[in-house]
Amino acid sequence: ASFDPATVVTSAVVADKWELPHSCLHFGSVLGHGAFGQVVLGLVLPSHLKVTEADQCQIQRIGRYAVVAVKMLQDETQGRNGREFLNEIDLMKKIGYHKNVLSILGCCTIHDPVCLVVEHAPLGDLLSYLQKKRRSLQSKRIESDEAVCARDELHANLLSFLRQVAVGMEFLSQKGYIHRDLAARNVLVCSPKLVKIGDFGLTRYVYDDKIYVNQRGGKLPLKWMSIEAIAKLTFSTASDVWSFGILLFEVVTLGSIPYPAIDNSELLQELSLGHRIAKPQNCSQALYDIMLLCWEQEPANRPNFSQLRHVLEQLLEQCS
Ligand code: ADE
Prior knowledge:
single chain, alpha+beta, 6-stranded antiparallel sheet, 9 helices, binds adenine, 18% strand, two-stranded antiparallel ribbon
């Protein structure tokens, strides 16, 4: 049976093992703004969190407190945003643990404001991280030993980031999830060696034909979307692979905007005529070839995430 998640309304809110009282959360600075509200730094006593001891070891501490990120809904829970946010929370509960996928640590769904408590990534989102690295490299003298060293180390770490995103997406796609908004802004950096896929605001679980067609419109990340996603709102693992190709471009260029000269209104026509992003400066032919495969017009001709992980592993071996 096929099932359209757009029509699924979260059933009655139930307090399960993830439910936390608001009183155990202490809020700090704003980390970012999401589709439904904001993300703030939070402190919570580890005893409130239903995670294994092994997971707890990885959670940053300040004194007795665990450091977490809390996504909060701005409006009341009644509207469409509220339902979608509750769906996002439900989805994170079901996904299960993977080291390259941001984990849920708890939630407050019984009383407003609805909160989703997730792992805190100390180094922020990947896009800001890349742009900061670009500025820091620019401030060093180009051929100084320091600059060459910093660049080589960064290149190896970035290639490893790409492999980790492919591994996380392999896990999600094999479980039947389509992310629909894979982009550097939605990947979180936990350490210079560890990234996790975050923000499941647009993710859908599709267990039959693995294709999700959005019939309601809404704000869509056009420049990360495949031809068929823009033209027909057809999302699939293959359209996530297209977005992975754009993410590759963002990483290689240290956070450039894709197609800066093309207006959103012209994008579909340009792509249909075969236009693709040109090979960026300093991008190896091997990485550009991977991008081009991700941007094959025919979804079936694109690689899957296992194949992408495999080629990235080969490139990483060559680099060490
Ligand atoms: N910004 C948005 N979500 C975040 C998270 N989980 N950790 C750090 N910064 C964030």
